[in-house]
Structure formats: C-alpha cells, structure tokens
Amino acid sequence: MILQGYLLEQYAREMPLALSARLTFEQVYGPVDGDSASSAELYVLLSDLAGAPIHQGIAVTGSVNQRGEVQAIGAVTTKIEGFFAVCKAQGLDGTQGVVIPSTNVRHLMLNSEVVDAVSAGRFHVWAVRSIDEGIEILTGLPSERVHALVRQRLRKLADTLMQFRARGRRRIRRDNHRPDARAPQAAT
Q1: Both ends of the chain: CA-CA distance in Å?
Q2: pLDDT tens-digit series, residues 31-84
Q3: Is residue 137 part of a domain?
Q4: Residue 108 above 90 pLDDT?
Q5: Which listed residue (36, 39, 47, 63) is catalytic?
Q6: Which of 19, 40, 107, 108 shows its CA 20 to 30 Å from the CA of 70?
Q7: Residues 114-167: pLDDT tens digits?
Q8: What per-residue confidence (pLDDT) applies to 176?
Q9: Distance of alpha carbon 187 from alpha carbon 73, whole angstroms
Q10: Cα(48)–Cα(145) distance, rounded to whole angstroms?
Q11: Could you tell me if residue 138 is inside a domain?
Q12: Count of alpha carbons within 13 Å of 124, Cβ hemisphere only?
C-alpha cells in the first residue's frame, strides 16, 4: 500500500495509473522483520518504468513512506558490513557501496576496515533522505529525468489501456447488434 500511495501521489494526478506490479524475493536467509526493503522495491519499479538501469554494485536498505521519505531501519551496521564483505571478496573497485537512510547515520558503528575503505574511496556509504536522492545515486540520472521517463511510460500504459477499453466497447456494441447465427430459421 505504501508503494501504491507513492505512485498515485507522484504520477496519477493527470492520468489513471494503469499499472499492477508484483515483487517476489526468491531467497530468504533468515527471519525477515519489518519493511527495510521497501525503498529498494520502489527503486526497482522506478528503474524499470524509466528504463534506467540501477548500478549493480550498490546495495540499498531503508523503509519508505508514501511521500518518498526514506526512513530508519534496524541492523544498519550489520547490513553495511555484510555487503562490504561480499564486495571485498569480489574485489573492491571504488564503485560499490550501500544506500542507507540518513536517519541511521547516527547509529553507525562500522568496523575499522569498512571505515578505512570508505575513507580511501574504495567503498561508499550514501545517506539519503528521499527516494529522489537515492534514485540519482543508483541510476546516475537526475531524479527529475527519472520521473519524466516514468511519466512517459505510464502515459503510454494508460493510453494503451484506454485504446483497449475503447476496442472492447466497440466490439460489445457490434456483437449486440449482430443477428445470432444460431437462431432457428423460419420454415418456408
């Protein structure tokens, strides 16, 4: 409902929202608690609708509200250090990092290896207040451009839906005025 509220607020003021999306996480490694993936879910939807790929070396955590504000989540230090370990095993290249809620910065207690890598520019921790700030980091595009591309795609989807409905109404009217081919013929 949060993602739907965001999409309706952002994009459905001038056109119907002709979109239904389902996201599934196929792998679960432990108990999942809360909505710390909701901002990632929204970034994925925006990326796909805009046709703007997300940089794959960047992890995301954070909850989001209907206004697009990224909210604090639990275990932020563990999440950053876990992703850092994966990136280190693959080879740090200076482009990897984690997008976190800015409200979590005061809770960070990162180990010295992560702090040193961030200081050296080999790993990044980006703190964001909004979906707009995060989408710029993830796609490398200004948020206004991403939103314009999303609106363009949603407009095409809405137009397609309207054309489909119009064809359906014409077909129903045509079928209602057509004589039934199976009706019994009068004997002559």
Answers
A1: 65
A2: 555 578 899 999 999 999 999 999 999 999 999 999 999 999 999 999 999 999
A3: yes
A4: yes
A5: 36
A6: 19
A7: 999 999 999 999 999 999 999 999 999 999 999 999 999 999 988 888 888 787
A8: 64
A9: 79
A10: 14
A11: yes
A12: 15
> CA separation (Å) from 172 to 31, 127, 142, 143, 181?
51, 54, 45, 43, 16
Q: What is the per-residue pLDDT for 101?
A: 97
Give the structural domain span for 113: 2-18+31-176
Q: What is the DSSP letter of 15?
A: S
For residue 187, being part of any structural domain is answered with no
Token pair in block for residue 16: 């119907």
Contact between 64 and 39 (Cβ < 8 Å)? yes
Q: Is 16 helix (H, G, I), strand (E, B) or coil?
A: coil
The two tokens of residue 11 are 């994009």
Contact status, residue 97 vs residue 57, Cβ threshold 8 Å: yes
CATH code for position 144: 3.30.230.10
Q: Which residues pair with 100 in a beta bridge?
A: 127
C-alpha to C-alpha distance for 47 and 129, rounded to whole angstroms: 18
Catalytic status, residue 79: yes
Give dist(CA 107, CA 12) in Å, integer: 37
* Encoded amino acid at 76, one letter: V
**Does residue 167 fall inside a structural domain?**
yes
The residue from 63, 79, 102, 130 that is catalytic is 79
